[in-house]
Specification:
303 residues; globular; 2 strands; two-stranded antiparallel ribbon; binds zinc ion
Length: 303
C-alpha cells in the first residue's frame, strides 16, 4: 500500500478499500485481545501504561482539537505549524485523512439522526435490537459503507488548504510513525526486544483500539443515552464519563446546540480539557478568534 493518498484521484473500487479497512480493524482488535491475554500473565509494566497514556493523550487532542473543533468547525484559528501538528496527531489514530473525517463529520451535523447521517445509531429499527444494530453500525458497520477516497462532499475549504492536503498525502506515513514511536521508545528504554514489542502493543495497537472506541462511543452513546437541555433537532446527549475520557467531546449535546463553539462544556462543572487547552494556547498567543457562546445565548437556547 502506498504511503501517499492523492486527494485528486478517483477510484471505482471503493468497496475493496472499505473491506480492507474493516479487515485491518478486525486484525487490530484480535492482536489487542491476544496481547492483553498474553501480557496480563507477565504483568503490565509502568512503561507500557506510560506509552499507552502518552500516545492516547496526543491522539485524543489531535481528534478533539484538530479534526473536530479546528478543521470541522473552524471554532478557532491557529498557526500553520500547529494546524499541521494537530492534523498529524489525529492521522495517527487511523481514523482516516483530515478531509475524509471532516466530510463524514459535517454530514453527521447536516443530517443528524436522519437519512444521510453516516453514523447515527438511531436509524436501525426500534426497541432493543434496533439499538444493538445501531451500536454495531456506529462502532464498525459504517466504516464499510462510507467513502474513503475522493471526491468528498462538504470540504471545499479544505481542498485548497495546503497544510491539510500535504498532511493527507502522507497519511500512511503518520499511521506507521504512530506504531514506530512507542516501539522504538519501548525498545530503547528497556534495551530489549520484549520492550520494543510491549511498546508496539500498548502504545501502538491497543492505543489505536482504545482511541477508536472512545471516538465511536461519542457518536453512539451520546446519541442514545444521557442528558439533554436544549431543543436540538437530533437525539444528541451529554455524558460526563465520556467527557472525561474524551477530554470534553462527551458534552456532545452542547456541541450539537453550538457546533461552532470551541467550548463544549458549557457549565462551570462540565470539565472540558480540550477547552482548557485552547484557553492556554490563546494566552500564549498561539490561537485566536476563539468562538464560544455567551451566557445569554446559552440561556436563550435553553428556553
Ligand atoms: Zn452527534
Ligand atoms: Zn461536530
Amino acid at each position: 500500500m502506498s504511503l501517499f493518498i492523492d486527494n485528486d484521484c478517483k477510484t471505482d473500487d471503493q468497496q475493496q478499500l472499505r473491506n480492507a479497512i474493516v479487515v485491518a480493524l478486525l486484525v487490530v482488535v484480535f492482536i489487542t485481545a491476544a496481547g492483553v491475554i498474553i501480557f496480563w500473565e507477565r504483568q503490565v509494566q509502568p512503561l507500557d501504561l506510560a506509552l499507552l497514556f502518552g500516545m492516547y493523550t496526543l491522539n485524543i487532542f489531535g481528534i478533539g482539537l484538530g479534526y473536530h473543533r479546528l478543521f470541522s468547525h473552524a471554532a478557532f484559528q491557529t498557526r500553520a505549524w500547529l494546524r499541521a501538528l494537530l492534523a498529524i496527531a489525529a492521522c495517527m489514530t487511523f481514523q482516516g485523512t483530515v478531509t475524509s473525517w471532516v466530510s463524514h463529520h459535517r454530514a453527521h451535523h447536516r443530517y443528524a439522526d436522519k437519512d444521510g447521517d453516516v453514523h447515527s445509531p438511531n436509524l436501525h429499527g426500534k426497541g432493543f435490537w434496533g439499538k444493538i444494530l445501531g451500536l454495531w453500525h456506529v462502532h464498525l458497520g459504517w466504516l464499510n459503507k462510507v467513502n474513503w477516497t475522493p471526491p468528498f462532499p462538504y470540504v471545499s475549504d479544505l481542498l485548497s488548504d495546503r497544510v491539510v492536503q500535504t498532511v493527507d498525502r502522507l497519511y500512511f506515513l503518520w499511521v506507521i510513525l504512530s506504531l514506530l514511536i512507542p516501539t522504538i521508545v519501548g525498545g530503547t528504554l528497556t534495551h530489549s526486544w520484549e520492550g520494543a514489542l510491549r511498546g508496539f502493543l500498548w502504545g501502538g495497537i491497543i492505543r489505536i483500539v482504545l482511541v477508536h472506541q472512545v471516538t465511536y462511543s461519542v457518536n453512539s452513546i451520546c446519541h442514545l443515552w444521557g442528558k439533554r437541555r436544549f431543543a436540538t433537532d437530533d437525539q444528541s446527549t451529554n455524558s460526563l464519563l465520556l467527557a472525561l475520557i474524551s477530554f470534553g467531546e462527551g458534552w456532545h449535546h452542547n456541541h450539537h446546540a453550538f457546533p461552532n463553539s470551541a467550548k463544549a462544556g458549557l457549565m462551570w462543572w462540565e470539565i472540558d480539557l480540550s477547552w482548557l487547552c485552547i484557553m492556554a494556547l490563546e494566552r500564549l498567543g498561539l490561537v485566536w478568534n476563539v468562538k464560544a457562546p455567551t451566557q445569554k445565548q446559552i440561556e436563550l437556547k435553553r428556553s
